[in-house]
Amino acid sequence: MAIDLEALYIDLHRHPELSFQETRTAGVIARELDGLGIEYVEGIGRTGIATTISNGEGPVVWLRADMDGLPVEELTGLAYASTVHGVDPAGNTVPVMHACGHDMHVTALLGALERLVHTKDDWSGTIVAVFQPAEEYGAGSQAMIADGVLDRFPKPDIVLGQHLTPLPVGTIGVRPGTQMAASDGLTVTLHGRGGHGSRPHATIDPIVMAAATVMRLQTVVSREIDPREMGVVTVGSIHAGLKNNIIPAEATLALSLRYPDDAARENIMARVERIVRAEAAASGAEKEPTIVIDHTLPPTINDADATARVSAAFTRAFGEGTVIDPGMFTGSEDVSWFAREAGVPLVFWFWGGLDPQTYQDAVERGTVNEDIPTNHSPFFAPVIHPTIEVGVSALVTAAREFLG
Ligand code: ZN
Ligand code: ZN
Questions:
Q1: How far apart are the CA of 397 and the centre of ligand 2, in A?
Q2: How far apart are CA 72 and CA 133, in angstroms?
Q3: How far apart, in whole angstroms, are the C-alpha atoms of residue 57 and residue 192?
Q4: Residue 404 alpha carbon to ligand 2 centre in Å
C-alpha cells in the first residue's frame, strides 16, 4: 500500500521532538521502511536511522534528511499545529515545534524511497538513506559518523540533501560553491570579582566587562572585515547576576559566528579572541576569560560539476525558470560532514513551501520580511501540497541523475 504522505507529514508535524530525542520520529520512519520492505539500522548516533537499497552495479548515492524540531511555541493556528512540550538539555520544559521543516524533509525522503523502490527497473546502483538527528545542535551528522555510519554502509560517491525554505512552492534554489556559511557557537565566560553592590571599587565588575565586550565585538564585522566579504558576529545570550545589590563574579556570553570559508573563520576567530581578552585586561580581570567552542559547522559547499548536473535535471523536471540561484545563506548546516569525511561531492538545495500567491502579494507590497515567516519562526507554515510532491520529485530527480 502506498504511503499516505500527507497523513505522515501531519503526524510528524504534530509530534516534533528535540534534538537527540527523535525516538518517536525514528519509530515512524522504521514503520514506513518496514512497509516498503527495506531493512534499516536504528540508533546510529543515538537516534539516527539509515538504510541501504541495493540495485545492482552503479554509483552509491546518499540521500539525507534531518529529523529534529525546535524549542519554539507554534503560533500558526493550523489545525495540525504542535502542542507538545519537551525537556531541553538544561532540564527546562519547553514547547516544541517543527519550525524548520524537518518534518517535511523526512516525509519527502520516505516518499522518494517509495518511488525509487517501485521503479527499480529504471535505475541501478545503491541508495543509502540517512535520517539524521540533531541538525539544530550541529551535532547529529558527526554523531552518526562517530558511530561508524560511513563504515557500516556503502561509502557514498555523492551526498545529496535538501532543505525547505520560504520561497514559493515550485521554486528550487541551488548554487555552486558556498551555499551556506560556516558557523561556530562559542561560550565566553568573563571572570570578575564579586562583592557588594555598594562597594564597586572592591570588585571587578563582570557586567561592565561584558557590556564593553559586546559593544566592541560589533566592530569585528563593521571595522575589521573587508566590506566585500561576509561575516556575522552575534551575541545571542548574556547572563550575569541575580540581584541589584550584588556584583556577580562572572558573566557568560553565547556567540554565533558565521563565515563563508575556513580562512575567514580563522580571521574572525582571532579577532573575537583578541577583543575578549583585551576587554578583560582593560577591566583589570585577574583571571583570563574562558572561551569554549561548543560546535563548529563547516561551510556547505556545493560541488560545481555535480550542481550543474542537478540544476539541469531540475530544469528538465520542473520547467524553465524554476531553478534560481538564491545566493549564499548565512545559516549553517551539518550535512556536509558526511561528504567532507568521505571526500566526495555534495549538492544541497532549497525548495520552496509557500503558497505562490501569498509570496507574490508580499513581494508586491514590499513586505516579504514582515509577512513571510522564515524557518525557526513560530509562524513557519509551509503548504502541504505540492510541497511534498516537489520535495519527493527533487530527491528522485537528483538521485537518478547520478544512479545508473
Ligand atoms: Zn533550523
Ligand atoms: Zn533546518
A1: 21
A2: 18
A3: 64
A4: 30
* CB 69 within 8 Å of CB 96: yes
Residue 14 sits in a domain of what CATH number?
Answer: 3.40.630.10
Closest ligand by atom to 350 CA: 2
Q: Do 23 and 158 sit in the same domain of this protein?
A: yes
Give the distance (Å) from ligand 2 centre to CA of residue 352.
13
**Ligand 2 centroid – CA 101 distance (Å):** 6
Q: How many domains does the chain have?
A: 2
Ligand 2 centre to CA of 108 (Å) is 14
Q: Which residues pair with 247 in a beta bridge?
A: 195
Ligand nearest to the CA of 164: 2
Cis peptide before 299 (omega within 30 of 0): no
Express each pLDDT in 49-73 by its tens digit.
Answer: 999 999 999 999 999 999 999 999 9
CA of 209 to the centre of ligand 1 (A): 32
Cα 376 to middle of ligand 1, angstroms: 6
CA distance 193 to 250: 7
Q: Which of 262, 278, 296 delimits the end of a domain?
A: 296
Q: For residue 398, which of 315, 332, 324 has the smallest C-alpha distance?
A: 315
Condensed to tens digits (0 to 9), the pLDDT of residues 74-122 reads: 999 999 999 999 999 999 999 999 999 999 999 999 999 999 999 999 9
pLDDT above 80: residue 1? no
Under 8 Å between Cβ of 57 and 41: no
CATH number, position 275:
3.30.70.360
Cα(317) to ligand 2 centroid in Å equals 25
When computed from its CA atoms, the radius of gyration of the chain, rounded to whole angstroms, is 23
CB 192 within 8 A of CB 250: yes
The alpha carbon of 330 and the centre of ligand 1 are apart by a number of angstroms equal to: 12
In this structure, the answer to whether residues 33 and 161 fall within a common structural domain is yes
Structural contact between residues 385 and 355, judged by C-beta atoms closer than 8 angstroms: no
Which residue has cell 514559493? 168
